[in-house]
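Q: For a teaching handout, I want to show students what a protein-ligand complex looks like in token form. Below are the inputs, and the small molecule is adenosine-5'-triphosphate. Please produce the holo structure.
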Amino acid sequence: MTMSPADSADTAEGLALHQIGVRFGGLVALDGVSLRVPPGRTVGVIGPNGAGKTTLFNVICGFVAPTTGALTLDGRPLRPRPHRLARLGIARTLQGVGLFAGMTVLENVMVGAEHAGQRPEAAREALERCDVASHAHALPGGLPYAVRKRVALARALVAQPRLLLLDEPAGGLGADEIAQLGELITGLPCAVLLVEHHMDLVMSVCDEILVLDFGKPVAHGTPSEIRMNEAVADAYLGAAA
Ligand SMILES: Nc1ncnc2c1ncn2[C@@H]1O[C@H](COP(=O)(O)OP(=O)(O)OP(=O)(O)O)[C@@H](O)[C@H]1O
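A: Here is the structure, written as tokens, with adenosine-5'-triphosphate included.
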């Protein structure tokens, strides 16, 4: 299998990371990571604990500035800032849920709609897409965790992003809920960057997968290529040992 860094992509469309490196003091969290998320594609990032997945996500969201390398959006330099992502057509969900406890489900998603300049009806449509419209008038606190996560996803989707960043969306979910989440992700019209531990979900929804180990890219390919890759098996067995 060949590595396919963003630098060699035949088109500059979409988000691209070029040789990104991040250091926290003496610790190298990311080292030479290149990746492209073309329009409409679902790209997964996996790796053992501490591999740098969340750091990569944080670089794209603008929470962490890369020490080396650069990002581009449609070929133009991108210096992400968390509060400017919506304007760029990028939405995200974070680990956990992060809903406003004092607002109903619908109001939570309306906040997202307003922020993105969408019409109010878009909020109900997003709830329907995520199959949680029946909870529109409930407060999040009383709802099952899986429902709250779907509401958070609806709040991200209401912006009708061109790129959706998902940070461990399967965390805390059961097998059936993860399967439903997979169906939802597969049906999305936007590009998706999925940072996730749950291999079955990643393998079932992603067009391509980047594998990190100790901050370095160790493989990049289709799910079937990744399944057969020895370096990937080594990274995971090493982590389990
Ligand atoms: N703000 C920070 N300051 C110092 N070190 C950090 C910081 N954030 C992450 N790290 C370190 O960087 C490395 C990569 O961490 P990161 O959270 O990106 O990995 P991960 O692949 O998301 O792990 P996990 O699967 O456990 O969430 C780890 O060694 C971590 O301890």
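A: Two things your students might notice: The first strand starts at residue 15 and ends at 24. The CA atoms of residues 22 and 67 lie 5 Å apart.
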